[in-house]
Amino acid sequence: MSKKCYPPRGRRPGFHHGRPHPPGVFRPLMSMSKESFKEMRKYFVLKILTDNPEGITGYQLQEEYHFPRTNVLRLLDILVEDKLVETKEETVEGRANKLYIITDSGIKLMEEMKEKWGERFRMMNETTMPFFTRGEKFVFMKRIDKLDNSEDAVDYFRGLRSKIKTKQSSLKKRLDIFTETRQELDAIVDMLEKDKEFDREKLVQYINDWWERKNVDSDKKQ
Questions:
Q1: Which residue from 51, 64, 65, 105 has the least number of CB within 10 angstroms?
Q2: Within its chain, how far is the Cα of 195 from the centroid?
Q3: SS3 for 195?
Q4: Beta-carbon count within 10 A of 179 CB
Q5: Dihedral over Cα of 34, 39, 44, 46: its sign
Q6: How far is CA 148 from CA 16, 95, 138, 143, in A?
Q7: How many CB atoms lie under 10 A from the CB of residue 84?
Q8: Max alpha carbon distance in the chain (Å)?
Q9: CB-based contacts of 117: which residues, under 8 Å, 6+ apart?
Q10: Gap between the Cα atoms of 69 and 74, Å rounded
Q11: Contact 141/43 with Cβ under 8 angstroms?
Q12: Residue 99, beta-bridge partner list
């Protein structure tokens, strides 16, 4: 009887017995390590601060976004130390409040993490389609093995079809948003190219008008 071989501890994801997965075999797309969770938490705080450019208190982060007090204050201290966030004292009704405001460096890092994690989650979502990988096909066939009659089979495939329709609808909405955004950016580039001199106030006004149009359209759709 041959002795079973197990992959060594510490082997990095995507490798088995020291060799890469062969083509078609499911490979882990993202490592959800402790460091990854810390990075995502940092991203969420920076994103919240971006949505509150006038600043936000540690208490608001706890109450409105349900961050544990100790964790969020420690994270804010780290962000301030790394110059990703700055603080400002403000007195409201005789009470001193410390506001946390994102810096230009914080905005840059937030955008980089947004691209990184957005791409990873997009890839993870796309691999949920049947037959996308050998692993997905294996799970798919296992579920078919448990079907006992035509009615169960019809229900199962109707469910899959419904999921595909939902994904199609979601993708269409995203595509519409990309198309509208590209059109606005085309208009900005065209305006900048036609102007003989750079007019910052005009550009700021256009961005503000764009923001107003976007929010009015969103309210109508809701």
A1: 51
A2: 36
A3: coil
A4: 10
A5: positive
A6: 36, 68, 18, 11
A7: 22
A8: 83
A9: 39, 40, 43
A10: 9
A11: no
A12: 88
Smallest Cα–Cα separation from 107: which of 70, 129, 79, 136? 79
Q: Hey, which bits of 34-144 come out as E strands?
A: 85-92, 95-102
Q: Which two tokens stand for residue 1?
A: 């009887």
Question: How many Å apart are CA 41 and CA 193, to the nearest integer?
Answer: 40
Q: What is the CA radius of gyration of the chain?
A: 25
Dihedral angle at the C-alpha atoms of 219, 220, 221, 222, nearest 10 degrees? Answer: 50
Token output for 79: 């962000």
Tell me how many degrees the CA angle 104-110-112 measures, rounded to the nearest 5. 105
Half-sphere exposure of 91 (CA within 13 A, CB side): 2
Q: What does the pLDDT profile of the chain (222 residues) look like in tens digits?
A: 444 454 444 444 444 444 444 443 334 444 567 888 888 889 999 999 998 888 999 989 888 988 888 888 899 999 999 999 999 998 877 788 899 999 999 999 988 888 888 777 766 555 455 445 665 666 677 778 888 889 988 988 898 888 888 878 888 888 898 899 999 999 999 999 999 899 999 999 999 999 888 887 666 665
| Residue corresponding to tokens 């503000």 | 208
For the full predicted model, state whether its pTM sits above 0.85: no
Cα 146 from Cα 144, distance rounded (Å): 5
Residues facing 20 on adjacent strands: 15
